[in-house]
Amino acid sequence: MDSAIYKKTESYVTDLFEKSDVSQLFFHNLNHTKTVVRRVKEIAAHYDLGERDMLALFIAAWFHDTGYLISGEKDHEVKGIEMARSFMMENMNDLELTEEIAACILATRHPRNPTNLLQEIMCDADTYHLGTKDFKDTNKEVFKEVSLKEPDISKEDWNERALKFLDSHSYYTAYCRNLLDEKKKQNMKKLKSKTDNGSIAGRPLDLDEKNSLTTKGIQTMLRLTSSNHLELSSMADHKANILISVNSIIISVILGVLFRKLQEEPYLTIPSIIFLSVSVSTIVIAILATRPKLGGGTFTNADVINKKTNLLFFGNFHRAPYEQYNEAMRKMMKDPNYLYGSLIFDIYQLAVVLGRKYRLIRIAYNIFMFGIVISVIAFAIAIFFFKKDTGAAVIPNGYPL
What we know:
Layout: H1 4-19, H2 30-44, H3 51-63, H4 68-71, H5 76-91, H6 95-106, H7 117-126, H8 135-149, H9 155-168, H10 174-195, E1 199-200, E2 203-204, H11 216-256, H12 269-290, H13 301-305, H14 322-333, H15 336-386
């Protein structure tokens, strides 16, 4: 069979996608179409198909989602069949082959019911990603498309819908069942963990039925945990302030008193420099521990829908308009999962900040502690060995080095 039809099909469909507005097609785009074409070739290679069957699958794979360019999701299979028929009429005018192509495209329509091997291969190629590591990304892409039509849908609702689809889905060809079923089960397990409303001691939480997070005991737990973290943060700031104050005094003494005596007692130069370096280093690290970090201060409606922003932390909304923040907060208050999820995330973020603070403060205290010891030893050595008045070993020019 003339291989030119393969090139014509690829060029024709590619041109359709490139000339159309695909800004809202995050998943059902040219990249997905090309992926399905590759999967069709892969699956078909394991079966003894003739050239005519291969061509039917190839053309069906290229046209199966072209209907999205005309009508969106609604009846896109029918629209894709119409476009395929028009293409075949112009290029081959083979009615029997055209109907085979149409049947393959229509087989991908939900609920799926393929009646022969070609249709089974087409269906499996279209849903091949469900059993691969790419499912996480493709699931997000489909959710973006759905969010444009259903702006109120939450990520949890979508994950539940996707889980039901995976549960009802099955691969038709033995090749795909053997290759993809195990990974699909893993994807279902990961998705199910996202649909659970958190966990306590490994038990799933159902806000409406099992362990409601609105109970007084859990509210108290969250409040006390947050309060304890804030108190620890205040203690860390106080410790850092002590280091800054003490070393500021030390630097003032070194610069104001000790440095003036270095001309008379130059053997104290190196100990003084060590002492000054220790104090400056301690102050710098203590300041880094307490230096505030501010976020961008804005968020998008998509962030709220996907629950990707914590509206309880001022750094995420201080530059946002009041109307946007008010609307987002009201949405969050209607969604217990989002509300308590934000509280939990807030506590976690406090812990992350605390970990950084205490780590830096510990370093500052270590520098100060060991630095003081080293400085005192340096002063003792300088005075004992290099002071001219002692009668001990004295360097001819009066300097310790």
